[in-house]
Structure formats: C-alpha cells, structure tokens
Design brief:
This protein is mainly alpha-helical. The chain has 10 helices and no strands.
C-alpha cells in the first residue's frame, strides 16, 4: 500500500486519531503531579504548561487580586507570569518539585509593575485639561493597602510566608536568599505593618 493509500484508508477497530491521542494525553496530565508536568515543560511540552495553567490559574488570580487596586489587572499578571515561566523554564527554582511558589512570586512582581503603571496613568489623567474620573476600588482592606506600600523585597517575603503559608526555608529557596535574610525581612515588614496600621487606627 502506498503512503497516499495508507492516509486514505479508514482507521482500524481500536485505532486512535491524532486528535484523540492529544485529548487522552491532556486528560492524563490533569492527574499528573507538578514534578511530572514540569519535566514535560522542560522538554518543550506546551500541553504540560497548559495543564499547570489550568491547575493554578484560579489561585494565582486570587493572589494577584489581593495586590492590585483594580481586579481586572489580575488576569494580565497571571498571563505574564506564565509567559515568564515558559521563557525562563531552564532557570526556575522549584520547591518540592513544584513551580507554584515561583509563580506566586512572579505574579506578585507583575502585580507591582501593573500597579505602578496604573498610578502613572491615573496621575496623567489628573493632569489632563479636562478632568476624567478614573475608576477606583475602595474595597481594599487597610492591611492589603499597607502591604502594597512595603518595599518589593519585604513584600515578597510577606506574600509567600504569611499569605501563602510557605515555610521560611521554602521562601528562601524560591527567592534565592538565606533563611536568615527571610527572617530579618519578615521582621522588618511586620514592624512596618504594625506601625502603619497603628497610625491608621489613631486617625480613624
């Protein structure tokens, strides 16, 4: 049988099409652990990256939403984080085989960049000849507002250890810093947060 005839011939009983094989492969990935999926990602498997996205998209979106004034920016932060995960996959630091802590830190970094861009945009509107009211969400708690004002290095430690519950050892692994540095940054951040929240309470 020629190659053309083989392509035209109907599938035999029990044979799968390429599309069916892809669907089955995707379903299998849904039950695979992070370490297995990450091994596939390192090999250039985009379906494995999509499986990680499906697994953590909701959690990362909620994480970004807490750090942003405008929730609609959270999707952008998550999208950029996964783009960076794919682009930098050879150098991503894993914690117990999972890229989730790295993603959480990267989403927070993207959120800070988006927040700064938003502030510059609102400042530009404020200087416009005709005043345009920029939308603002006043639902943020005092704690989250104070957290966003922390320096980036301290904010990253608080987000991973306090909000996400990672151990100091795991935070150190993700950020590439000693455990002692994590402890000192966390202590400074907590002192600043207590000071800010105390001032807010005194003004209330």
């Amino acid at each position: 049988m020629s190659e053309v005839d083989r392509q035209r011939a109907p599938l035999g009983h029990g044979e799968e099409t390429e599309e069916e094989r892809r669907v089955v492969s995707g379903a299998d990935m849904g039950s695979e652990d992070d370490a297995g999926l990450w091994a596939r990602v390192l090999g250039g498997d985009e379906l494995a990256l999509a499986a990680l996205f499906d697994r953590y998209d909701g959690r990362l979106f909620r994480h970004a939403s807490r750090l942003l004034t405008h929730r609609e920016d959270a999707k952008d932060a998550v999208t950029v984080a996964f783009f960076e995960l794919w682009r930098k996959r050879a150098s991503v630091r894993l914690v117990e085989g999972s890229p989730l802590p790295w993603l959480l830190n990267t989403v927070a970094h993207c959120a800070r960049n988006l927040e700064r861009s938003g502030r510059r945009y609102r400042a530009l509107l404020d200087r416009a000849p005709v005043s345009v009211a920029a939308p603002h969400d006043h639902d943020d708690s005092d704690v989250m507002a104070a957290l966003r004002r922390l320096p980036e290095r301290e904010q990253a430690v608080v987000v991973l250890s306090v909000l996400e519950g990672y151990a100091e050892r795991e935070v150190a692994q993700v950020l590439g810093i000693p455990v002692g540095t994590v402890k000192s940054r966390l202590a400074r951040a907590k002192t600043k947060l207590r000071g800010e929240l105390g001032q807010e309470g005194a003004r209330a």
